[in-house]
Prior knowledge:
With 250 residues, the chain is an alpha+beta fold. It folds into two domains: 15-107; 114-248, Cupredoxins -  blue copper proteins (Immunoglobulin-like, Sandwich), CATH 2.60.40. The protein contains four helices and ten strands. The protein has helices spanning 15-53, 59-71, 78-107, 239-248; strands spanning 114-121, 124-129, 139-143, 165-168, 172-179, 184-188, 193-197, 203-208, 213-219, 231-237. It has a five-stranded mixed β-sheet with strand order 3-2-1-5-8, with no helix packed on it. A five-stranded mixed β-sheet has the order 4-10-9-6-7. A hairpin with a 4-residue loop joins strand 6 (184-188) and strand 7 (193-197). The longest helix is centred in the N-terminal third of the chain and has 39 residues, at 15-53.
Amino acid sequence: MINLFAIGFQDSASPIMEGIVDLHNHVTFYLVMILVFVLYMFASVFVDFYKVFSFPLSRKDLKFREVMLAGNKLTHGTLIEVVWTLMPSFILMAIAVPSFSLLYAIDEIIDPSVTLKAIGHQWYWSYEYSDYAAKYDTIAFDSYMVPTEELTRGQFRLLEVDNAIVLPVHTHIRVIVTATDVLHSWAVPALGVKIDAVPGRLNQISMFIKREGVYYGQCSELCGVNHGFMPISVKAVKLDKYLAWVEGNF
Length: 250
């Protein structure tokens, strides 16, 4: 059952998605720390302003105002200027190092064992498995969304397709993405994959699926009137089941 009020990422099924979630948590820590500090500074300024400029003033209040205006090191002074200049730099460096590492991991293409070609159309996807062309013909099929009236119990509306992609787990996979008409975007959140499909251009991205299951995605580019009706369904299976599926398509 899908929780419509869930907040956060889908369960990770690839190392890249795990890295994305870890980076999100890493950055969130600094965001919370900055938020708490800024709120504290606001509260301090408001309290000091109330104490210093409240009326009527007694002698004690006047003396307090003189001390605050003459020696307040929290809002004025060389030291605080140096601190609030250096601290953001250190925070940005602490965020940049893991983000650069993750970007490099996403861009790295390890020698793949399986190559899948995804082709975007208005408004459906076509897929080709060309690794077996030397011995067999290329496996190619179109993948259309299952209409709502044809769904069976337990299937997901706007996410089910008539021909799902079948891929092996624990295998390095390369996905080559292109389009025939307009811009599309091939995206599967649980696998940490999102890449544009550009007419006349081949883009590629790597995947490594860690566990069996069915993972859903959708076109993430505004590609026309039926943009929301070209879902992606990836069925991850063990290698022996994948090989049996390949044999069954010839």
